[in-house]
Amino acid sequence: MQETVEKNDLLIAGETGDWEVIIGMEVHAQVTSNAKLFSGASTGFGAAPNSHVSLVDAAMPGMLPVINSECVAQAVRTGLGLKAQINLTSIFDRKNYFYPDLPQGYQISQYQQPIVGEGEVIVDLLDGTRVVVGIERLHLEQDAGKSLHDQHPKKSFVDLNRSGVALMEIVSKPDIRSSEQAKAYVSKLRTILRYLGTCDGNMEEGSLRADVNVSVRRPGDPLGTRAEIKNVNSIRFIGQAIEYEARRQIELLEEGGEVVQETRLFDAKTGETRSMRSKEEAHDYRYFPDPDLLPLELTQDWVDSLKSDLCELPDEKRERFIRDFGLSPYDASVLVAEKERADYFEAVADGRDGKLAVNWVNNELFGRLNKEGLGITDSPVSADQLGKLIDLIADDTISGKIAKDVFDILWTEGGDPAEIVETRGMKQVTDTGAIEAAVDEVIAANPDKVEQAKEKPQMIGWFVGQVMKATQGKASPQAVNALLKDKLGVEE
Amino acid sequence: MSELTNLTIAAARAGLDKKEFSAKELAEAHVSAIEAANDALNAYVLVTPDRALEMAAESDKRLAKGEGGALEGIPLGIKDLFCTEGVVTTACSKILEGFTPHYESTVTRNLWDAGAVMLGKLNNDEFAMGSSNETSAFGPVANPWRREGSDDKLVPGGSSGGSSAAVAANLCMGATGTDTGGSIRQPAALTGTVGLKPTYGRCSRWGIVAFASSLDQAGPFARTVEDTALLLNVMASHDPRDTTSVDAPVPDFTASLKDGVKGLTVGIPKEYRIDGLKPEIAKLWDQGVEWLKAAGATVKEVTLPHTKYALPSYYIVAPAEASSNLARYDGVRYGLRVDGDDVISMYENTREAGFGAEVKRRILIGTYVLSAGYYDAYYLKAQKVRTLIKRDFDQAFEDCDVILTPTTPGPAFAQGEISGDPLEMYLNDIFTVTVNMAGLPGISVPAGLSGEGTPLGLQLIGKPFDEATLLRAAQSIEDAAGPLKRPENWWTKAA
Amino acid sequence: MSVDRATVHRIAKLARIAITEEEAARLEGELSGILDWVAQLDEIDTADVPPMTRVADMKMKMREDVVTDGDCADDIVANAPEADDDYFVVPKIVE
Ligand SMILES: [Mg+2]
Ligand SMILES: [Zn+2]
């Protein structure tokens, strides 16, 4: 099933007419690896200062970089996951600038010949529509260390534990048109990276951070001047930063002002972006190929072998869920957003009715997990238990309503669904004699309502409720309905 | 025991095996020679007598057990560009003042593993930038050679001027050097020593203070070709920590030394006969040709058409790489710091005070040629010219096995004689720099004396990783030139 | 002069080397001299020549993803002009 992807032409109304917001993103994703990109020091988070630092990371005189093959493999896997061009030859360059947490005085990065070229990400939006965001490139580079400014009134403290950790810089095309799309893009990117196992996507620890380029223009005009908002470290902040920045630029332009190309910082406290103290000099990074490193050369065979080992990616999984389980695109998108969630669903849905399964997983289970602030991997109810519960509904052993009670027991006490139903007498009553007795009793006790029902056939609902109450919910709703219609003489 | 310092490495190694003397005696003889000479020559910036004697004692133990390594007990001097564990290493720059590495460079590690004994750290041009050893923060080195009838102090060449002077004055049996544009071969020529720059990738660069990464290569100095081969045998290795070091077997470079040049074709590049070539240099070169012919080599004119562009392209590539390699000297993690109001002024003050004039000049040139809008015109252009220079050599080596040229455009000059115009100094590397640009091996062999009575050298250039043939041809020149005069000892203080 | 005074100052700033006006004047001449001299490379047509990307004919080796280094904070800060609690210490950085 090929769905159409929407044309991306969102507009915002200003005082003087419509505006289009143009957004491009540079996402820095920390590569999942044991050791750093060019040294054998650990990438572990939260260690004592300068303890995950080798002589190479501290740029001691005479130290040389040696590349970590796994970081290269992770970049290639990510490129494949982004349906991107893998460049069999790429070059590491030096980006030269001075900063205390940049020990070499340059960052080893890739400039003119990155390891990954153009690709795309299909972004799922809340309203069920999808847009395609182009990927310009992905390159490997070193992370910098960390400077702490609040330890001393006149000094900054430098810790190089992050120095040299491998990052993938993933640069999008300016295809994003709203803060919602931007948030959804980063979410989708994070989902893909997590599926691939190439980045843990942990934004609190800084494993994923975004630089957001925002400009505005009149529809049809050429691109406007952009501002770059640096290092935004949560999806919510990305949305806020864009909202603020777009409005700031529109207001500025509508008042006859001009947007200046600059780097801005997002202040999470105020929700505003502000200009970074403008540097005396423009950046001039003096990129040139790192003479300590030969060109990075890959073979097609090696790339192919990585490709054949890739797991099923969210878009493919989504298609399959729609196709094989009859799910709605929306439900499928919700499920695949997290691999563990999709896996859970698949375990539940295996050999069962997909729609029933997705209803239970997406509504009952996720609703409850959300309410209690739990993730899918913390779920007290296993996929196996939920599957068995669904079996009991499917074969009419229990009603949907009773199933919710059983689910509640599973959640708090655990156990086997069939056993719970059996031992606690929760089985659905299908014995027509017993149901008929209950129906007769209710009719006999409410002659006035019987009269009303003749005028208002909807009253039957009230009777169903009373019968269900009398049978403690165990009566088959279909049977109750049929009997009531018959006895009250109500026609549909 | 002063004759001990006069021995070759080969002879000393044999003498140690025969117990004619001990490693301790050998070390002591050198330590006292250094003590007596260093005030005058300034070849060593740091002498490590305690370490030398300790290492020699260990050597004697191993020798007694018959477990002596290839260089067991051989006292060596180490250029201050090599990081030596626990021994201050400064690249002869103020900016690395007091820096004590907690690691040992791969090349020196190889030497110690083979039993060699460290005498100390040798002077060099600051960060190896210079051709006269006058840019060192520790002051200039005096060449043991003087012009006939003159007391003027001559330069020992550079940047490995401490190495060349120490070897020439018998203050060590051999020394390490580094060669980025001629920094081993030019000082070797000016001091009457043998200096070899191996193929790029033959020796590991790990632990050597970087100048220009795509050109730097470590190599040995010694007083004979055989000793040079012995040192190279040990210095060369594949090092997983330097991915530009080559994973190729290191042959025994002494094995074919005596094979002579019969059957070899020696190329003579016509472009090296530059305008204004000094007659005595031209004569020396012709003499070299005759020697090799007489030894049975075929001599053939070859062409290296892009020769004249090697030096200007070198003065783009080397400063560019240096400007980036020297960015790490920022007063944060080691070396000098000069405070400022903020981080930026701390950087600026530190680097202003820490770097000398020549280093600053090259950093600024390098920064300029890489800066926005100039990269293509300078750096990219120079790297393209490098391709052409390399192609020239590839072409020439289809017709010959080694190439013979002069090493330098002239003999040693006096301290302070070439100053003012940096370009004049740069011209010293005119014959050597092509070899670095193409990554080839080159050697300078003493071949005679100038009209002033100071040494001159001939350079041989080899095919990549064919140092063996290079050394064979060098041996032939050494044999033909016969025993050379040694410099008159004017530098030893009376005891 | 291929390099003017303002350029000398800009380059020195980029290279983080403080220079006096006097030095700038001297460097203006020296740098221009060197750059004028290297301009002879313009004589060569290099349009179809690839830049040298490797000196020796070899491929880059990669290492395994194994932690083999670190846990030596003492060594790392041992030579620091100023350190505190295994941190490097610098004058306050202002964003
Ligand atoms: Mg960026
Ligand atoms: Zn980046």
Automatic annotation (TrEMBL), chain A:
Keywords: ATP-binding, Ligase, Nucleotide-binding, Protein biosynthesis, Transferase. Residues 343-488 form the Asn/Gln amidotransferase domain. GO terms for biological process: glutaminyl-tRNAGln biosynthesis via transamidation; translation. It is an enzyme of class 6 (ligase). Its EC number is 6.3.5.-. It catalyses: L-glutamyl-tRNA(Gln) + L-glutamine + ATP + H2O = L-glutaminyl-tRNA(Gln) + L-glutamate + ADP + phosphate + H(+); L-aspartyl-tRNA(Asn) + L-glutamine + ATP + H2O = L-asparaginyl-tRNA(Asn) + L-glutamate + ADP + phosphate + 2 H(+). Allows the formation of correctly charged Asn-tRNA(Asn) or Gln-tRNA(Gln) through the transamidation of misacylated Asp-tRNA(Asn) or Glu-tRNA(Gln) in organisms which lack either or both of asparaginyl-tRNA or glutaminyl-tRNA synthetases. The reaction takes place in the presence of glutamine and ATP through an activated phospho-Asp-tRNA(Asn) or phospho-Glu-tRNA(Gln). This is Aspartyl/glutamyl-tRNA(Asn/Gln) amidotransferase subunit B. It comes from Methyloligella halotolerans.
TrEMBL record, chain B:
The keyword Transferase applies. Its EC number is 6.3.5.7. It comes from the Bacteria. GO terms for molecular function: ATP binding; glutaminyl-tRNA synthase (glutamine-hydrolyzing) activity; transferase activity. Keywords: ATP-binding, Ligase, Nucleotide-binding, Protein biosynthesis, Transferase. PROSITE patterns: AMIDASES (PS00571). Residues 25-471 form the Amidase domain. It is an enzyme of class 6 (ligase). Allows the formation of correctly charged Gln-tRNA(Gln) through the transamidation of misacylated Glu-tRNA(Gln) in organisms which lack glutaminyl-tRNA synthetase. The reaction takes place in the presence of glutamine and ATP through an activated gamma-phospho-Glu-tRNA(Gln). Hydrolyzes indole-3-acetamide (IAM) into indole-3-acetic acid (IAA). Heterotrimer of A, B and C subunits. This is Glutamyl-tRNA(Gln) amidotransferase subunit A. It comes from Methyloligella halotolerans. The gene is gatA.
Automatic annotation (TrEMBL), chain C:
GO terms for molecular function: asparaginyl-tRNA synthase (glutamine-hydrolyzing) activity; ATP binding; glutaminyl-tRNA synthase (glutamine-hydrolyzing) activity; transferase activity. The keyword Nucleotide-binding applies. Its EC number is 6.3.5.-. The keyword Acyltransferase does not apply. Keywords: ATP-binding, Ligase, Nucleotide-binding, Protein biosynthesis, Transferase. Transmembrane segments: none annotated. It catalyses: L-glutamyl-tRNA(Gln) + L-glutamine + ATP + H2O = L-glutaminyl-tRNA(Gln) + L-glutamate + ADP + phosphate + H(+); L-aspartyl-tRNA(Asn) + L-glutamine + ATP + H2O = L-asparaginyl-tRNA(Asn) + L-glutamate + ADP + phosphate + 2 H(+). GO terms for biological process: glutaminyl-tRNAGln biosynthesis via transamidation; regulation of translational fidelity; translation. Belongs to the GatC family. Heterotrimer of A, B and C subunits. Allows the formation of correctly charged Asn-tRNA(Asn) or Gln-tRNA(Gln) through the transamidation of misacylated Asp-tRNA(Asn) or Glu-tRNA(Gln) in organisms which lack either or both of asparaginyl-tRNA or glutaminyl-tRNA synthetases. The reaction takes place in the presence of glutamine and ATP through an activated phospho-Asp-tRNA(Asn) or phospho-Glu-tRNA(Gln). This is Aspartyl/glutamyl-tRNA(Asn/Gln) amidotransferase subunit C. It comes from Methyloligella halotolerans.
